[in-house]
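3.2 Worked example (two chains)
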Amino acid sequence: MAEAEDEAPPAPWHFKVLLFATAGYLVYRLIWLVFWLTGHAWHG
């Protein structure tokens, strides 16, 4: 019984959505950075 009381409650659904959205945004910005660097870094 003590083991069940020590378990953390499950994360709410909106926290999971927030994590998914944040990860998606960071991937988008990383791709944007790569395209920006390839378009500007070597053209003087």
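3.2.1 Second chain
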Amino acid sequence: MPFTRMDQSTAAEWMNIGREVAKRQAQMPALIKSMLRQLEEQVDGFATNQLVHALQTATRAVRDGASEELIVAALCHDIGKVISVVNHPAIAAEMLKPYVSRETYEVIRTHQDFQGRHYYALMGMNPNAREQYTHEPWYALAEKFTDEWDQASFDPNYDTLPLEYFEPMVDRVFGKSLIRLSDEATATA
């Protein structure tokens, strides 16, 4: 029987938990694709739904020669909107964090402040919010992401690649094993 209090747990129980979590973790690509499909229901007054916006952003990344990791991040940059529009960049970034580089994580985490150049002033906010990041090594990539891909991706007539094109990439990026059971720990369990 599994423990009922963590302070009474054993190494063997934690090894079992690790194995069970790894099994569930293997389903992450399917979960991400399901969440992306939920974006299709969200239009929120834009010219396209949020899935089309995500697909267009990722399509622009593909056509610009971005890495697979960055393409998947472009596809998932607004996935947090399934949960909350207000803090969607933080949600999306944290979902991506275990699977991507720090640079890609930071681009997604801050993309709203970078995008603010195009609309924050209309809402009484600081359109120069991105300037707080000017000394970050990923600043130029964040500018490219938001100015060339993200903010331009609300066009119902844009030649957009379908979700099926990106699914193998999602499988590879989110299919990475995050739980590593060492041989030594497994042997002592």
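3.3 Remarks
Residues 180-189 have pLDDT under 50 and may be disordered.
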